[in-house]
């Protein structure tokens, strides 16, 4: 019987990732078999592998799964009744395959790739035909594989509150925290939209890279821990119209201190912690009221807005930033590299 190769994790740490074989799956009715070419890593994949992705009640913890959600691959077999795809089509995965449009709910969250469902760190995987998006032809496999989580999350943070097709940002101040996958995607989308982009980082070298990508202002949050004051100064006391909050516990209060009146803070991540210090609680009700702020939780985005974003990328010929590519057998090293935090943009595994 034909077999495929896949990495699995018992959710007990990166060192317990295991490369093995499994029978080659066949697509059923309404499904396609995809030969996976590139997988892009997200912060979430490290958390899942460490057994730390526990904050969504609707996401069951499994005992063993294939990790990762983001891939670019080629359709090699189509099941009965599939009209959307043909053999040879280049496709991208969607993080929550059932989230096709509108508001996400527990139902879609309970079907996420790379927990609770098996993910994409494998040579082949079967997908429902509706779960895939056409890969833009101007991007390499490695570049295209970075779009499903990082870019869609940044896209939704900047445009999710606007009606579909009315993508904005021109003249707005957008603040991005750090230089990881979401932030660098936000930088590229923001600049292509005509926004004025302010980006923070712990590293001057990374800030120099961000400048090359068009960042208008850069702030080192290590040497300038009160970066929120600098945002106010740089914007002539206007503040940020949109903030991509990936820091969490140690940054949210600062974001409230540099948001514009009527601005939007997108709660995306928690790289500085999930819990406030007991003696330093963030009093969200007053902080939101003070400048009539919108605080919006973000969980990726639906497929229709992913496709809207791909059209924007094509129009502006945006090339996602792939910092480092690892080979399939080097997957553990790739996870460790991402967890180490020295990357700028995305880390990819070539299958
Ligand atoms: N809600 C969603 O849909 C969604 C989607 C994607 C990601 N996320 C979450 O968003 C966060 C970022 O994800 P990612 O994939 O972009 O991660 P990533 O590529 O690993 O990047 C993380 C970056 O955060 C920066 N950072 C660390 N501590 C910081 C601090 N105290 N203040 C500001 N920046 C800090 C670092 O940038 P420097 O090295 O430049 O300092 C680091 O490179 C994670 O918590 C992830 O779980 C959520």
Automatic annotation (TrEMBL):
Domain Enoyl reductase (ER): residue ranges: 13-349
Gene Ontology MF term list: oxidoreductase activity
UniProt xrefs under SMART domains: PKS_ER
Domain of life of the organism encoding this protein: Eukaryota
CDD domains reported for this sequence: MDR7 (cd08276)
Protein name: Enoyl reductase (ER) domain-containing protein
Species lineage: Eukaryota, Fungi, Dikarya, Ascomycota, Pezizomycotina
């Amino acid at each position: 019987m034909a077999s495929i190769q896949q990495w699995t994790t018992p959710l007990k740490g990166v060192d317990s990732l295991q490369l093995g074989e499994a029978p080659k799956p066949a697509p059923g009715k309404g499904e396609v078999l995809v030969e996976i070419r590139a997988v892009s890593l997200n912060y979430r994949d490290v958390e899942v592998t460490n057994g730390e992705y526990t904050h969504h009640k609707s996401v069951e913890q499994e005992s063993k799964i294939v990790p990762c959600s983001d891939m670019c691959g080629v359709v090699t077999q189509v099941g009965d009744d599939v009209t959307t795809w043909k053999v040879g089509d280049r496709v991208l995965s969607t993080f929550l395959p059932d989230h096709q449009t509108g508001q996400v709910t527990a139902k879609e969250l309970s079907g996420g790739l790379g927990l609770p469902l098996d993910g994409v760190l494998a040579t082949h995987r079967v997908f429902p035909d509706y779960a895939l998006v056409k890969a833009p032809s101007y991007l390499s496999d490695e570049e295209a594989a970075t779009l499903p989580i990082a870019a869609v999350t940044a896209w939704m943070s900047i445009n999710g509150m606007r009606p579909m097709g009315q993508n904005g940002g021109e003249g707005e101040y957008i603040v991005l925290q750090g230089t990881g996958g979401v932030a660098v995607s936000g930088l590229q989308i923001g600049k292509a939209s005509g926004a004025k982009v302010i980006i923070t980082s712990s590293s001057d070298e990374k800030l120099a890279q961000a400048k090359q990508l068009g960042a208008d202002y850069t702030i080192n949050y290590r040497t300038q821990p009160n970066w929120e004051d600098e945002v106010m100064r740089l914007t002539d006391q206007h503040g940020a119209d949109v903030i991509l909050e990936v820091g969490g516990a140690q940054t949210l209060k600062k974001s409230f201190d540099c948001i514009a009146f009527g601005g939007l803070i997108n709660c995306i991540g928690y790289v500085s912690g999930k819990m406030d210090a007991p003696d330093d609680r963030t009093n969200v009700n007053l902080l939101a009221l003070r400048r009539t702020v919108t605080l919006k939780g973000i969980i990726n985005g639906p497929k229709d807005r992913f496709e809207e974003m791909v059209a924007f990328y094509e129009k502006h010929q945006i090339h996602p930033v792939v910092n480092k590519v690892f080979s399939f057998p080097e997957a553990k090293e790739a996870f460790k590299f991402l967890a180490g935090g020295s990357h700028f943009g995305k880390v990819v595994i070539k299958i």
